[in-house]
Amino acid sequence: MENPLGGAEFAPAQTYLNTSTCGLLPRRTVDAITALAEQNAAGRPDGAGDFEVVDAVRERFARLVGVRPDRVALGGAVTVHVALIAGSLAPGAEVLFAEGDFSSVITPFTVRGDLKTRFVPLEELADAVRPQTALVAFSAVQSADGRVADLPAVREAAAAHGARTLLDVSQSAGWLPLDASAWDYTVAGGYKYLMCPRGASFLTVGEEAQESLVPAHAGWVAAESPFDSTYGPVERFAPTARRYDEPPSFLAYYGAEQSLALLEEIGVDAVRAHGTALAERFRSGLAELGHEPVRADGSVVVAVPGLGGLRPELARAGVIVSARAGNLRVSFHLYNSAADVDRALDVLSS
Description:
Elements: E1 15-16, H1 27-41, H2 51-65, E2 72-75, H3 78-87, E3 94-98, H4 103-110, E4 116-120, H5 125-128, E5 133-139, H6 151-161, E6 164-168, E7 185-189, E8 201-205, H7 207-210, H8 250-266, H9 268-288, E9 301-305, H10 311-316, E10 319-320, E11 322-324, E12 327-331, H11 338-349
Parallel strand pairs: 1-10, 3-4, 3-5, 5-6, 6-7
Antiparallel strand pairs: 2-8, 7-8, 9-12, 11-12
């Protein structure tokens, strides 16, 4: 636990405990982005970017979440993926949410105005699914406080009532093992625990779910034969989840290919063991200081109610954390160490 994973790939200038906001880019990722940008600036033919790299990202993400690559769509933001799903629901359909979940999981549904929406506490989500529920949309790990949802219970309840599921794994993909095939849809922002540049996001679509999902924002890259579909309407979309692709930001995806490669080399299980051990060390230290964090068993995120106002003071001391919903939120990843934990506790104790 003393040494961070990833070795020389990371060299933060401060004590960085804020991956739930934005992950650090590995050195290899920065190098890949820089190389493509330099090629573009020089006017070289390969400076525009290569779709083979984009497909490599699709394959790497698929392996990380346990699905075939043909079940993965690529884009630029989770909200766009969620809006695509929201647009597929029939008027009057009921969508069930966890109270206080991240707005990107909720707002694309509520702005429609013709859907029935219900909100229940996270711990009551499974019991709240009913025969009228068309979709359960929620995050695997809550952004505000790091609580981990009871994924098996929600999945079982949804299946029992014939409801589809949308799981946001933006706060968990990269450290919490995931079988995306167990869900109708999963979405992930790549710039947190996947350590990708902003502009890379991921959508998985089950085969049955794809039957009712219209590629509403599709362009030529979503065609069965993209380079034969650059003019006029697309006549034939890809038969796979690639039909939901957005045009890729090549700089982001060149970086993403390297970040996901690093995660594959280290392994999600190793990242989880490392991060949760650091989180437990931090929770123990908080208890000694008289602070009680939100209970979030098995999470790499630690949130302390009422201490969010200390974020600027910690930043001045070189400890980077975040404030969410009144909580001081600290999040651990593969590049953190026990020394980072102790530094944050030292600043809090003073």
